[in-house]
Write a structure and sequence with these properties.
Keywords: Signal. This protein is mainly β. It folds into three domains: 136 residues, Immunoglobulins (Immunoglobulin-like, Sandwich); 109 residues, Immunoglobulin-like; 133 residues, Immunoglobulin-like, CATH 2.60.40. Strands 1, 3, 5, 7, 11 and 12 form a six-stranded mixed sheet that branches. A hairpin with a 7-residue loop joins β15 and β16.
């Protein structure tokens, strides 16, 4: 018998509330994806103008764990660099077409799955709306009949007017080839007119696309009429962490990469990930730095033929750590909600969690909540300078007299201390 799984309502606030996160507001909504083209390993950033439209559109999708049709609609809002709504803009300033109450028409019911669901998808731009301005954007999906908010999806549009160069080193102002990595950055204004960089320029630097520990508006060491430079900047030092863990749930009949066993309890499938153990040393492994990709063994019609199963995570630990342990990846939307928290099993001396996930490839890490409510690398993972991390930089600009922040620069680099 097919079953529809009803989830407990998600908490509205995370431990560290950030407005730029993708958010699921309604119980029973799963697998929210926001991707530019097919670039699932990258931030969802599209160019304001591009010669390759197929790779320059934001694709947004999610599942509703029922076969009951809902008339979902979406509205688009331009936001400032801090992700607050751009209150000085009219919708016509940033969008051509309709900014509100656009109906989602791409709807597909699941086929031959144990868990019934309906897949909803749409892309921006489309025949209903096109974007005219760079910057941050929020998309709010709501039930068109009740007005209830379902999801919030965030993406960015860049108009690359500024020049950015980045560097990364394991020789940091804290240690050398030990536990940290440090970013340097140089910004060239090019044709931008910048009289007061402290108010006109805003920056964000991220590690592995994580918004929760992003460094915002780090003060540059050097200011010239043509640009800014961040060199030996202690605000741009990150914990090196360790390589992400990974697994694939490509089939309900047998175990695939990283899975110890697949079981059936008479109602649901269960995938048991091999137990993770504390890693006292660095061990190279190619991973996706938290990204996930939905697919099954056939890799055909993944949107509506992949099933859902409970994925069981275990982290061996002889004792409790001093802070709460959370699973983290892009599939947790970098939000530290109760459903991603690991519970400690005193009898088995390990942390455990079971999460309902759609079939696919997943990469993840363990983070620990510190005393100041920030998330640090779990003691089980360790921090090793050899870790291959990706770093992203966003640069926003507001010209004199402008009414909003525009995204004028984006850059990503990968630090490969081992030369892989």
């Amino acid at each position: 018998m097919k079953r529809t799984i009803l989830l407990v309502p998600l908490l509205a606030l995370s431990l560290v509330s950030r407005a730029q996160y993708n958010v699921i507001h309604k119980a029973g909504i799963k697998t929210l994806q926001v991707v530019c083209g097919d670039k699932w390993l990258a931030l969802p950033i599209m160019k304001l103008r591009s010669d390759n439209p197929s790779q320059n559109r934001i694709n947004i999708s999610f599942d509703d764990l029922t076969h009951t049709y809902h008339r979902y609609t979406y509205s688009i809002t331009h936001c400032e660099a801090d992700w607050s709504p751009s209150e000085q803009l009219f919708a016509s300033d940033y969008i051509e077409g309709f900014a509100e109450d656009n109906t989602i028409d791409d709807i597909t019911e699941s086929i031959n799955t144990n868990v019934d669901y309906t897949h909803y998808a749409f892309s921006i731009p489309n025949e209903k709306c096109r974007l005219k301005l760079s910057g941050n954007y929020k998309v709010t999906v709501a039930d068109g009949d009740t007005g209830e908010e379902v999801i919030t999806a965030c993406f960015m549009v860049v108009d690359p007017k500024a020049g950015i160069s980045m560097g990364a080193t394991t020789n940091t102002d804290i240690d050398t080839n030990l536990a940290h990595q440090q970013i340097s950055m140089k910004l060239s204004y090019n044709a931008l007119r910048v009289a007061d960089p402290e108010t006109q320029i805003k920056t964000v630097v991220m590690q592995n696309r994580r918004w929760d520990n992003a460094r915002r508006n780090a003060q540059p060491q050097y200011k010239t009429p043509s640009g800014l430079e961040w060199r030996h900047n202690r605000e741009l030092i990150f914990e090196a962490g360790n390589e992400y863990h990974k697994f694939e749930t490509l089939a309900t009949s047998h175990a695939t990469m990283g899975i110890d066993e697949i079981s059936w309890d008479g109602e649901n499938y269960h995938a048991h990930v091999f137990a993770d153990v504390p890693r006292p040393n660095y061990l190279y492994d190619e991973d996706a730095n938290g990204a996930f990709y939905i697919r099954n063994s056939d890799n055909i019609e993944n949107e509506n033929t992949c099933d859902y199963m409970y994925v069981h995570f275990t982290l061996d630990s002889k004792q409790r750590y001093p802070g709460d342990i959370y699973l983290n990846g892009e599939w947790t939307y970098n939000r530290f909600l109760p459903e991603y928290k690991m519970e400690y099993n005193e009898e088995k001396r390990r942390y455990e969690a079971a999460i309902l996930l759609k079939q696919g490839y997943y990469s993840y890490q363990y983070l620990m909540e510190s005393s100041d409510a920030t998330m640090k690398t779990s003691p089980s993972e360790g921090n090793f300078y050899q870790t291959e991390n990706k770093y992203q930089a966003l640069v926003y600009y507001r010209g004199q007299g402008d009414r909003t922040d525009q995204l004028v620069g984006y850059q990503e680099i990968q630090l490969n201390p081992n030369g892989h």
